[in-house]
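Hey, resending since the last one bounced:
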Amino acid sequence: MRAKAVTNLTRVATLILGLGLSSLAAAEDVSTDETAGATSSDKTQYVLAVSWQPGFCETRPTRKECVDQTADRFDATHFSLHGLWPLKKSYCGVEAELKARDRKGDWLDLPKLAMADETAARLLVAMPGVKSGLDRHQWLQSGTCQAAKAEDYFKLQLRLLDELNSSAVQALFAEKVGSEIGESEIKQAFDRSFGAGAGDRVRMRCQTVEGRSVITGLTIGLSGDLAGKDALKSLIQAAGPTEFKCAKGIADAAGRG
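The structure tokens again:
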């Protein structure tokens, strides 16, 4: 009887610990969940994750990249980088000790990345999370599986982000700042810029903040040779469809509330 009680307690403790770790991981990074179910097709090889930073900052107001966000900053009206993830691969060639440090979430304690000053300056604007070490985390978890150098990994993402931020999708979000946007509007904007069916390769992330459904970002399925110069349109068209998930949400404005 005593042994059975101990076994049950052990199971409960394990479940609670697992839920706690899952919640912590979800609070810090969305890549694990998104890559696990990013697409319903084997055609998708990668996921490009972009943030709608004002919405993200509603959920993480104390993050270094959020405390100083203003309405005139680039990420107040444009998408910002979260990461570029290969499906079913992570931490390629990363030693166990460094991997364990990364998973603790203290990303600024990770090694600083080597890249050209120009690339680093562009990345600081395009990926506000650099202030919290997001670039170092993304490189270890995903970049090591895609490129030999961090420079190449982030220059590719900057190019793809530029294409997205020059599209009807960014124009839609900028026009609707402070208002709700629905699935059909977003899919139509993707189709206009990246070809018929492009919107079916997109998933939207939302989070409820004080009773409001706030858009925090998008994940976009990609397939193809990322080492080449393929345009975002062709990479999206080569991917498989996915479920949009969040049907509608608010494209939040910079600042709390």
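The radius of gyration is 19 Å.

Sorry for the duplicate.
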